[in-house]
Design a protein that fits this description.
39% helix, 3-stranded antiparallel sheet, 7-stranded mixed sheet, 11 helices, binds pyridoxal-5'-phosphate
């Protein structure tokens, strides 16, 4: 077949459409020579906070900075333990380690691939209690647990209400890793909440004590370089991050604490302001593309043994990735790639089995759902502007790979 390649992500096309606006913003930045701080950063922070429905947004240098700073600002200290999932990008755990804390993993839900509230509940129940702090002690590390970091993986919020209820019960903070979930919505209608909170759709980033966003170029909202942000309603958390991202100073050359060089560039802020105006349109296009995949793949999904993404009624995902499962994963991916359909694995090796964390002692079998899922997932092409035609091509190649070659 002489068909063109269906790319996994066509970043160049997205930027080609915005080129005039981006070039104009670059010119303004060069003429003003305001490269650090200034009105573009302030205005982006205001606009993104408003978009997420939070009081504050603090621009930082990357999503990894955002995770680290959010944890530190919320009160995670060296010697604390933090619970998260193993099916995520390593930056989640880097942020925890760099805040001085140690990671405890819990398993994921077999349908949503997000943190499993059941696994979290069972884990917490099995922890001993620290006499000094009253907090649960991490089962791997023996350290008092301070926070939970649910990751809104693939652009979807999982069982957030249950996770937050457990956090309240055990006195823990919840910090969202929303690095893949710009604009994702969650219906917070859990029974225990109806009396104290209003029931409505809320955006990722507004659900926990604070949330970390990445604007890595390939994310749903991406800069033209490195960038990130923390969103929060908490004035103290916001003030602390404003300080640590800028060498711990509250005023130039007056350092309350030792901080970091973790600021958001003015020029990236200007690009992000332009792109933020398109985010809802792009996310809608991703949701439409996901609906089309569902339609195109469901006629043969069951007979061919593939599992399509599951979106609970409480979730409106933004499909950062469209992820399917098949037991013939490696063969299917090889066949698709050989026939011009680019795919990815997110992620091929869960973090608890990575070389760098080997000393933590998690072996094969310690997180069974995560391990099963990691061996079976394929991410199909997904980006705003993906056409129905390109998707038909994916469906045809996928069906033929499943039916013929790989069996
Ligand atoms: C991209 C990502 C990060 C890190 O973001 P960077 O901007 O690359 O530092 C953290 N967590 C998750 C889940 C991500 O996808």
């Amino acid at each position: 077949m002489a068909d063109q390649i269906v790319p996994f992500l066509d970043l160049a096309a997205i930027h080609r459409e915005l080129a005039d606006e981006l070039v104009a913003a670059t010119r303004v930045a060069i003429e003003s020579a305001r490269f650090i701080g200034g009105p573009e950063v302030d205005q982006f922070e205001r606009e993104f906070a408003q978009y997420c429905g939070t009081k504050h947004c603090i621009g930082v240098g990357s999503g990894t900075d955002a995770v680290r700073f959010a944890l530190m600002a919320a009160g995670v200290r060296p010697g604390d333990a933090v619970i998260t999932v193993s099916n995520t990008f390593i930056a989640t755990v880097e942020g925890i380690s760099q805040a001085g804390a140690e990671t405890e993993f819990v398993d994921i839900d077999e349908r949503t691939y997000e943190m499993s509230a059941d696994s979290l509940a069972a884990y917490l129940k099995s922890c001993r209690t620290d006499a000094a702090t009253g907090r649960p002690l991490g089962r791997r590390t023996g350290k008092p647990i301070r926070a939970i970091v649910p990751v809104h993986l693939y652009g979807q919020v999982g069982d957030f209400a249950c996770i937050r209820d457990l956090a309240e019960e055990y006195g823990l903070l919840v910090i969202e890793d929303a690095c893949q979930a710009h604009g994702a919505e969650y219906l917070d209608a859990s029974a225990s909440r109806v009396t104290s909170h209003d029931v409505r759709w809320r955006r990722a980033g507004s659900l926990g004590k604070a949330a970390a966003f990445s604007f890595y170029p390939g994310k749903n909202l991406g800069a033209c370089g490195e960038a990130g942000a923390v969103t929060t309603d908490d004035d103290e958390v916001a003030a602390y991050i404003r300080m640590i991202r800028d060498h711990g100073q509250s005023k130039k050359y007056y350092h309350q604490i030792e901080g970091y060089n973790g600021r958001l560039d003015s020029i990236q802020a200007a690009y992000l302001r332009i792109k933020l105006r398109y985010l809802d349109t792009w996310n809608a296009q991703r949701r439409e593309a996901a609906a089309r995949y569902n339609e195109q793949l469901s006629p043969f999904a069951q007979s061919a043994g593939i599992v399509l993404p599951y979106e609970p009624a409480s979730s409106r995902g933004v499909y950062h990735l469209y992820v399917i499962r098949t037991q013939e994963r490696d063969a299917v991916a090889a066949a698709l790639n050989a026939n011009g359909v680019q795919t990815g694995f997110h992620y091929p090796v869960p973090l608890h089995l990575q070389e760098c964390y080997r000393s933590w002692g998690y072996g094969l079998g310690s997180l069974p759902v995560t391990e099963r899922v990691a061996a079976e997932i394929i991410s199909l092409p997904m980006f705003p502007g993906l056409t129905a035609q390109q998707q038909s091509r994916v469906a045809v190649e996928l069906e033929s790979a499943l039916r013929a070659g790989v069996r």
